[in-house]
Amino acid sequence: MRVTRLFAATAAAVLVAGCVMPVAAPVAAKPAPKSTGAYGEAEGQIFELINAERARRGLRPLAFNQSLDQMARIQAQNMAHFQKMAHVLPEARLPTLADRAHYTGYPFGEIAENVALGYPGPEAVVRGWMNSSGHRRNILNSGVVETGIAIARSSAGGLYYCQVFGRRLSSI
Questions:
Q1: Which residues, in sequence order, are bridge partners of residue 20?
Q2: Which of 46, 69, 92, 128 pairs as cysteine with 78 (C-beta 3.0–4.6 A)?
Q3: 148 strand-pairing partners
Q4: Contact 74, 100 (CB under 8 A)
């Protein structure tokens, strides 16, 4: 029964609406290095596709941030481990986005997360996010300047995607 539910969720490529936690002001961004994850090329494609969506709307590109990448990797791996797509995983050691930000030492002024399950690749997941109002809002949010992206595969074969968006808290 669990495999049937997972298969149905995977086949439907279900999305969870994006979560946003607003706070303070922007900081200059850094260029994106190559991802070191197992899905590095696909993660890099998502990065480029997201920035292309932003450019089409006159928004600045997002810069890669190692802390946000680590947060995305933690969440993608936990979702794959627990075979559950969610922004909050109570059974995980770092259940919330804020917990992951504190763990990685990312002092956020604004932070948001997109998650997805079951998409076959970068183009499909970005298209899915752009067709979802909450995820699209995160992607096109001019208040975020950095991002990190991760993909993890569950033991049942499902691909779990996570993208974290952020802007550091600036000191006044």
A1: 112
A2: 92
A3: 164
A4: yes
CB of 71 within 8 A of CB of 164? Answer: yes
DSSP 3-state of 151: strand
pTM: 0.80
What CA–CA distance (Å, rounded) separates 143 from 23?
Answer: 10
End-to-end CA gap in the chain:
54
- pLDDT 10s digits, 57-109: 999 999 999 999 999 999 999 999 999 999 999 999 999 999 999 999 999 99
For the chain, what's the residue count? 172
Closest C-alpha to 129, from 54, 30, 39, 37: 54
| Residue keyed to tokens 């208040």 | 143
Question: 5 and 90 in contact (C-beta within 8 Å)?
Answer: no
Note whether 42 and 122 are within 8 A (CB): yes
Strands ordered across the beta sheet of 159-168: 15-21, 108-117, 159-168, 146-153, 63-64
